[in-house]
């Protein structure tokens, strides 16, 4: 899955690691409760070791690619876009 990810992709958290590392110049380990399953974020960049810097609602964190999945853009149907049938 991680090979399909690129900077700017929207991703969803599918599993929680034991700890999460902040994406700061001096990273800190945080408990996994700062994130929640299903939370969505945006990839800021790739780091060594298959880690991705991802911006979530509560901050930016470094996560392995195995913990996230890319969110595909959903097609817009004509009814939800406001057009009449």
From TrEMBL:
Pfam families linked to this entry: CRR42-like (PF11347)
User: What highest taxon heads this organism's lineage?
Assistant: Bacteria
* The protein's name in its UniProt record: DUF3148 domain-containing protein
Origin species, per record, is Lyngbya confervoides BDU141951
């Amino acid at each position: 899955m991680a090979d399909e990810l690129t900077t700017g992709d929207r991703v969803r958290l599918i599993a929680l690691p034991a700890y999460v590392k902040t994406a700061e110049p001096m990273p800190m380990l945080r408990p996994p409760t700062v994130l929640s399953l299903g939370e969505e974020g945006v990839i800021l960049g790739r780091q060594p070791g298959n880690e991705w810097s991802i911006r979530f609602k509560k901050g930016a964190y470094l996560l392995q690619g195995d913990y996230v999945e890319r969110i595909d853009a959903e097609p817009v149907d004509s009814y939800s876009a406001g057009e009449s049938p």
